[in-house]
Specification:
single chain, 21% helix, 3 domains, eight-stranded mixed sheet, globular, six-stranded antiparallel sheet, alpha+beta
Length: 557
Amino acid sequence: MTGALVDIANNQKSPILTKSGAEASLVPSFKVTSSDQKSISESEMAAAIACVVAYMEEEKTCPSKDIQDKDNVYLSNWGRTGLISTKRKLGAFDPFIFKSKSLWRSLILLLVLNLTIAPNVNAQNSENIEQGEPVSTASALIKTNSKTIRISLGQGLSSAQLGSLDGMEVLDARTGELCAQLKAQSQWNLSFANSTLSLTPSRFVDLNKIASGPELTTTQVIALAPPRLPVMKQSVYSTIPWAKSRSASLFNRKFESALTDQGLLLVPAKDNDGIFTLNNRPYRGSLFVRIQGGKFQAINIVNLEDYLLSVLPSEMPSAWPLEALKAQSIAARSYALANLNKHAKEGYDLGSGTEDQVYRGVLQEKERTNKAVQETTGLVMTHNNKIVPAFYHSSSAGFTETHPNNSKLTYLKSIHDYDQASPHSAWRLSFSPGQLAQSLGPSVGRVLGLMAIERTQSQRVKTLMLMGDTTNSLISGDAVRKALKLPSTNFNVICDSQSGNYVFSGQGFGHGMGMSQWGARSLAEHGWGAGEILHHFYRDVHVVNALESDETKNSVL
């Protein structure tokens, strides 16, 4: 209790008027204040009294029965409450609060005392509902005291499944207007058609878990005395306005096709600590449903450190040495910050697949990788005072690769790798001439030969010649790797004289630039720290805290 003071001011009485204006009766006038001298509002007092009056009216409809009747043939809830004084032996402490004749007065006092414990809770008044301050822009709802990043979870979508675990606010992404509120533990079908985004409940229990239009409110209800609902047949029940069909659309928002960056911003009630689900996969942060032509994009706006909690175990096994995990965390953070606005025209920063960094949401998070992220919070690599896009790969098969644009990215050099333990140290794949022609160059006709004609410093294939019965063509090693889904460009290719198939025998996994993850594991197992690992694979870089100002940044590893 907070030391509330309840005074029945000298038994002063206040008149209660009937609908006709006549005085009906006199009741004690209460003056209620809390220890911080804040008075209870009239609407709060009215809500408390309304609840008691509802119970008193209900008591009148019950059969006349002494509440102290020991046979208990029939006792209402109100009557059973009155038995407290007769069924419990309270000794000398038997105050009037437990006397049945004063029960309704006592309940008023208890409700009033309870209100003083939480003076910030408001009663809902249909004539005067307090409204929150208008939001100027949707971006203002994202915390500005920490880095956020936009991750594409899907493009060209016409529908998706949405889950509101902690409750969500639905905002217009351009204006910040509050459009709807989704209650916690609700599930929705999100769809887009005819320039309109719609939310449809996934389950019958979700029918009443959305508020929109005049239903929106920022106040909390402290007292509710619902009427007694009769038992109804299904045919009668289906005529009730809120008993809508499960397939009914409860929220619609139409958008103009001429405007850009349109859509809905769905913000969890717990801000960046909240979680939502998209197609049954949970994510942290907010969801931007961005209109894209006749479809929509799903973009996760998430705190950078929360993003890394999922990226790190998606890119490196959580059971690996902690120093290797910390090196990977710094590299992933550097890559993310260096590539902000990489896909700005499409409305996001990075993809969620191998084209950037693998991001799979909350379910991918692990305790050890979370520790690595937390112990390296804000740390990035810089070269010439700029954050570097820290490329990394699985294994290089002995030597890493120099970046093609070596004049600018001089920190990426061909470095000796210690990745002998990699399961990709050797691989072998076979393709028929028909498969090669279909994947590499249908215009050459029937494939007669394929050979590497140019290699890089680390002996990776740079250019190949594809020969056919119609024409010949040059194709890059990277293009061949992507088209045939080869593990790397470090390969040899020969034609098997017996089968006529083209056999690719290679080593390593990935593009080969930057840090080798299997090499980082080996170095960590031999006692190398995260900073030493990074300085081995990335030359002439500094590890600094990106959260510090430019004037105070110093190399920390």
